[in-house]
Design goal:
Distance between the termini: 44 Å
Shape: globular
Helix content: 40-55%
Strand content: 5-15%
CATH topology: Rossmann fold
CATH architecture: 3-Layer(aba) Sandwich
CATH superfamily: SGNH hydrolase
Number of strands: 5
Structural class: alpha/beta
Number of domains: 1
Radius of gyration: 18 Å
Strand order of the largest sheet: 2-1-3-4-5
Order of helices and strands: HEHHEHEHEHEHHH
Low-confidence stretches: none
CATH class: Alpha Beta
Largest sheet: 5 strands, parallel
């Protein structure tokens, strides 16, 4: 017997309702508390500076554009990535103020002449806690944050996730990035904490590739949903965009990850 679209939607919601109710009960693993809990201004043009974690599965910007269209929001994203890169590999001043005018065809400057009003910095996945790289991460986080502010934009640091099989990395990464964010009064986006929460609640949903590091399509979807929730200070509200680039998720999985993203962000920032 054929199932109607309405009934199918109800079945999907029923499949995730148990996980929904558990989301708020799965405690986050950070020890430090962020001092910055929201951007001062709602972003419109966002540049994501990162590496392979950023560009896997066609890139975070692709998911965020999909969310934008689904939610009918004014949020335009670009990304600049280099495989394996840490923050010092990127000329952030050049990226957010390109000398030509091609970027302005899509990303209109605001009333203050700023092209990208918000810039996300995603460091190498382990540099905040890897002894040979820690000081370099701190130095370039500080330098880039200053550059971003000088350009009239808002900076944010993206917290990455623990390697598969090494859950102890979650709290270490979280606290290391929060500490730097607090020192420079910069928003931290708690992606790694959302990964840990989702993995506790649904062990069957793979967020990390067999290499034990890079995100699956579900992982990229979750990271993008966390970024959306943190930047816009609102949930995706049942988005029916399940991923592009021939990598759409099952509706139940997407709805679950949307909920995890929102619950993580609310708890992390102390929002009501």
């Amino acid at each position: 017997m054929a199932i109607s679209a309405k009934l199918r939607t109800r079945l999907v919601l029923a499949a995730v309702i148990g996980l929904y109710s558990a989301c708020s009960s799965a405690a986050l693993e950070n020890n430090l508390t962020p001092t910055v809990t929201a951007l001062k201004n709602t972003p419109r043009n966002v540049m994501i500076v990162g590496n392979s974690y950023t560009y896997y599965n066609c890139g975070l910007f692709d998911y965020l554009w999909g969310f934008k269209d689904d939610q009918k929001a004014e949020l335009y994203t670009a990304q600049a990535t280099i495989a394996g890169a840490d923050l010092d590999w990127h000329n952030v001043e050049y990226l957010i103020n390109p000398p030509g005018q091609s970027a302005e065809i899509i990303y209109k400057r605001n009333k203050d002449g700023v092209l990208f009003d918000t810039v996300l910095l995603q460091p190498n996945s382990i540099s905040p806690i890897d002894p040979p790289r820690v000081e370099n991460f701190k130095k370039w986080a500080k330098n880039h944050i200053a550059t971003i502010r000088k350009a009239g934009a808002q900076p944010a640091l993206v917290m990455t996730w623990a390697r598969k099989g090494q859950p102890e990395m979650t709290a270490k990464l979280a606290d290391a990035v929060i500490k730097v964010g607090n020192e420079h009064k910069t928003l931290v986006i708690p992606v790694g904490l959302a990964f840990a929460k989702a993995q506790k609640l649904n062990r069957k949903l793979e967020l990390i590739m067999p290499d034990k590091s890079h995100p699956t399509a579900a992982g990229s979807y979750l990271e993008s949903a966390v970024i959306w929730s943190a930047l816009l200070k609102k949930p995706l509200e049942g988005s029916q965009f399940y991923g592009g680039c021939e990598k759409p998720l099952k509706p139940a999985d997407a709805l679950f990850l949307q909920k995890v993203a929102w619950e993580t962000v609310k708890e992390f920032y102390g929002w009501k």
